[in-house]
Amino acid sequence: MNRFVSRWLILPLLLLAQACSAFPSMAAWDGPKKGAPALWHVKGPDGEAWLFGGIHALPANIKWITPKMKTAMDASDRLVLEVVGLEDSAEITRTFQALGNSPNQLPLAERLPVDLRAAGEKLRDKGRVNPAKFETLESWAAAITLAGAATANLDMVREAGVERVLAKRYRNRDKTVIGLETAARQFTYFDQLPEADQRAMLASVIADADNAPAAYRDMVTGWLTGDVARLEQAANRGLLQRPQVREQILVRRNRDWANQITDMLKLGARPFVAVGAAHLAGEDSVQALLEARGYTVTRLQ
Fold first, then answer.
1. What average pLDDT score do residues 13-34 get?
2. Sheet containing 296-299: which strands, arranged edge to edge?
3. Do the Cβ atoms of 189 and 253 come closer than 8 Å?
4. How far apart are alpha carbons 106 and 111 in whole angstroms?
5. Nearest partner of 126 among 110, 145, 141, judged by Cα
6. E strands of the chain, at which residues?
7. Are strands 39-44 and 47-54 parallel, antiparallel or unpaired?
8. In this structure, are residues 200 and 140 in contact, taking their beta carbons and an 8 Å threshold?
9. Of all residues in the chain, what percent carry a pLDDT higher than 90?
10. CA geometry: angle at 164 spanning 160 and 168, to 5°?
11. How do strand 296-299 and strand 176-181 relate by DSSP bridges?
């Protein structure tokens, strides 16, 4: 697997950062035009649910809603997303600025290894980020800001992202759409990381920025083909090898989501749950946690 993919997938908010800026015109997507991403059915004595791993921004005009997905969505009574409100970019930007800025931060170069300082300045210039901005931008927020620059030319469109497409479909059918988290809570997970981990996150974004086009193509292709093994490999590499980062960014959130899904089922709900694809891969995945609680989880596609 591409080294960049192994790191990129463990930073789920990097694509969320794109909600803070407009996408430029994109070149035509040259990858697969359709596919069948992984979908699971969860069954227990108190009800049933469906789990679907998504990507926050996708190329336009690719087809990924299959007949099996339509059947599952029709059988569900609500859509449960990782976070709702992605379409409100102004609110996300305000939240990001409130949490991501603190006075007396070091210049970008002083937070990077010597061998990445030139690349960091190049990416900063590409994103047209004023150097003075880093005087208040915390390291995790600097990573997300520079990730926005790294992904600015990729063939992805917010409106084509899984959350927006599914939310529109459910709302058109007068079905409830709710979120497992808020944007503020997601940003807070990064805000609470120790500075050393935040700087490692920042360094990884800069080190891999030039590989973004190939990595994004590989990621979307793997998602469209339902290659869960690729996601599982990604979930055990890069920054997720740091126990505290893995716990903060992935595992504790999966546990919380499994708790919420369990509560919904006990109340008689039939949720279709769509979260970032990396959360549905590996031994700490949401479906693995549900299986440990006695639910039967079956992959449908």
1. 60
2. 176-181, 78-83, 271-276, 47-54, 39-44, 296-299
3. yes
4. 7
5. 145
6. 39-44, 47-54, 78-83, 176-181, 271-276, 296-299
7. antiparallel
8. no
9. 52
10. 115
11. unpaired
The two tokens of residue 210 are 């030039």
Residue type, 229: A
Q: Tokens 């300045």 appear where?
A: 121
| CA–CA gap between residue 178 and residue 176 (Å, rounded) | 6
Mean of pLDDT values over 155-166 = 84
Q: Which two tokens stand for residue 96?
A: 């990001």
Listing DSSP states for 143-190 in one string gives: HHHHHHHHTTTSS-BGGGSHHHHHHHHHHHTT-EEEEEE-HHHHHHHH
Contact present, 17 and 145 (Cβ < 8 Å):
yes
Lowest mean pLDDT among 130-139, 149-158, 270-279: 149-158
- 44 pLDDT above the threshold of 90: yes
N residues, the chain? 301
pLDDT confidence of 30, banded at 50, 70, 90?
confident
> Contact 186/90 with Cβ under 8 angstroms?
no
Per-residue pLDDT, 90: 82
Residue with tokens 């599982």: 232
Identify the pLDDT of residue 244. Answer: 80
